[in-house]
């Protein structure tokens, strides 16, 4: 029996593509143990207290964060106290920036007059380094979560906003005219024409903003926090607990990798139609 075809290609080719991607991903993992072994040898040879070996860092991470009961996924109470508030601030600030950035970006992209008014303010705002505004937010909102959320929102809204504006302006005018001819209302044009066309750009901005949100979270917790992984990093550094400090750095790297991987998986699922359309063309 001849294999079924999709878009002129055998089904076996479509099914094999994810398999090849997994094999390539596994093939790249050889660098991780090689790096860990080289790190272990170098730090033990140097014998510097400021640079503990990865075995000591991992042992300390297990002791303070991952030695809890199985019912809590091996997470200790300290892990829940450190990671929970940080992740809540991270996603809270990122989601707030996403909503504001997409709404304002679509409005600017659809209205040239509004763009003329707001473009100078946008260029001014995105030129200000967000860490410099931490003292301002602390004075305005006091120490704690509100100031940290404000820092994250202000810092990560710009890539979302600018990518949304770019994606909205890039919508094919023929598609919009066709929608008008068929009697689509403004809301229908927004939902069925503008948003799908701008979605790849919006997702690109959201992905960049997620990485920036993690960085700004740490900065906000260091300068204006009383808890969270950023605060624990500062406490370990000031207390000369170098395995703890390096453990926080490793956790931040792992968290960034996991967040990026999860977002890429979500993006592939949501924008599967877009990749299929490009392959067809």
UniProtKB/TrEMBL annotation:
A Pfam family recorded for this sequence: BPD_transp_1
Domain ABC transmembrane type-1: 83-267
Subcellular location: Cell membrane
Keywords for the protein's UniProt record, in alphabetical order: Cell membrane, Membrane, Transmembrane, Transmembrane helix, Transport
InterPro entries: MetI-like, MetI-like_sf
Transmembrane segments: 94-115, 135-161, 208-234, 246-266
Membrane topology: Multi-pass membrane protein
SUPFAM superfamilies, per the entry: MetI-like
Keyword Cell membrane tagged: yes
The family this protein is said to belong to: Belongs to the binding-protein-dependent transport system permease family.
CDD domains in UniProt: TM_PBP2
Name recorded for this polypeptide: ABC transporter permease
